[in-house]
Design a protein that fits this description.
Blueprint (H helix, E strand, L loop, with lengths): L4 E10 L2 E11 L4 E5 L6 H8 L7 E6 L2 E2 L4 H6 L1 E4 L11 H11 L6 H10 L15 H13 L5 E5 L7 H16 L3 E5 L3 H7 L2 E6 L2 E7 H7 L3 E7 L11 E4 L5 E5 L4 H11 L4 E7 L3 H11 L1
Parallel strand pairs: 3-8, 3-9, 6-7, 7-8
Antiparallel strand pairs: 1-2, 1-4, 4-5, 9-10, 11-13, 11-14, 12-13
Length: 299
């Protein structure tokens, strides 16, 4: 099987700093894959190696079977990257920038696809506007468009929704979901873990240049077998339950963290015994953010 992305024991050192320490992973064609980690974990370094912006100190990286070092032309053509930084040419309009980007990949007659990208990213009314006159959110839309202009089978999104408004975020994800349904492989890095939970079928978590978790999103969520119970009480919380308190709010609401669902009955029994009335109660499953924090603390 030819993987969309294949990374085998990749390391990267900057002097005495080891940014990546033997990272291995693969992403299947058509997959929506999440690459998560705290700042400095090595996510952007790994993306830079895949994009050919930096060389790995050791190991192998391939895009659609093409080695990013020895077969770099084919690897670059198969990959589109939306960078984290706002990088743009201030001398051209949006349409001109996309036309020039097409030319880098030898595409001469690409106007129809450029028009489709512009429409889907709500850039139609800015198509003939100079890049330096755009807002930060609009510039980020153009970066997404530039990554897609040569129709790459693999698309890497490095913090694509950082600093953008809710409307753009929703429009962007509708378009990206459509590309994924059409067969494009999507790799997402984001600090908005609710996005990763909703979009990604599998997730890798990096910490200090190493993969500390790699599994289907649903399996990672199952790892955290407990739950949270939100309570609003008609009296004081019994002392026996104080150790379970995760949050207290000024309005009196309490959030308990339970290691197992079976602990709910113990909580209710303690409240009944103390004759404390339950005014409101909500049982909540842990989300990917909770799992992420737990894994980072343990690793």
């Amino acid at each position: 099987m030819t993987y969309a992305i294949e990374v085998i024991d990749v390391t990267k050192c900057y002097g005495d700093l080891q940014a990546l320490a033997g990272v291995s992973l693969h992403v299947a064609p058509g997959e929506f894959f999440g690459l998560l980690g705290p700042n400095g974990a090595g996510k952007t370094t790994l993306i830079s190696i895949l994009a050919g912006l930096t060389r790995a100190s050791s190991g192998t990286a391939r895009i659609m079977g093409h080695d990013v070092g020895s077969d770099y032309r084919a690897a670059r053509r198969a990959l589109g990257v939306v960078p984290q930084e706002l990088v743009f040419d201030p001398f051209f309009t949006v349409r001109e920038a996309l036309t020039i980007q097409s030319g880098y990949f030898g595409l001469r007659e690409n106007r129809a696809w450029i028009d489709e990208i512009i429409d889907n990213l709500d850039l139609a009314d800015k198509a003939d506007t100079n890049m330096r006159a755009l807002s930060g959110g609009m510039k980020r839309r153009v970066l997404v468009a530039q990554a897609l202009v040569h129709k790459p089978p693999v698309i890497v999104l490095d913090e694509p929704t950082a600093g953008v408004d809710v409307e753009l975020r929703q429009a962007l994800w509708r378009f990206i979901r459509r590309l994924n349904r059409d067969g494009h492989t999507i790799v997402l890095t984001t600090h908005y873990l609710e996005e990763a939970e909703a979009l990604c079928g599998r997730v890798a978590m990096l910490k200090q240049g190493r993969i500390v978790a790699l599994d289907k999103t649903e399996n990672l969520l199952r790892l955290h077998s407990g739950c949270y119970v939100g309570l609003r009480l008609g009296g004081a919380l019994p002392p026996s339950l104080e150790q379970l308190v995760a949050e207290r709010h000024e309005d009196g609401a309490i959030r308990l963290a339970l290691p197992e669902y079976t602990e709910v009955e113990r909580v209710m029994a303690a409240l009944r015994e103390a004759r404390v009335a339950v005014q409101e109660m909500e049982i909540m499953q842990p989300d990917l953010e909770e799992v992420f924090v737990q894994i980072m603390q343990k690793s």
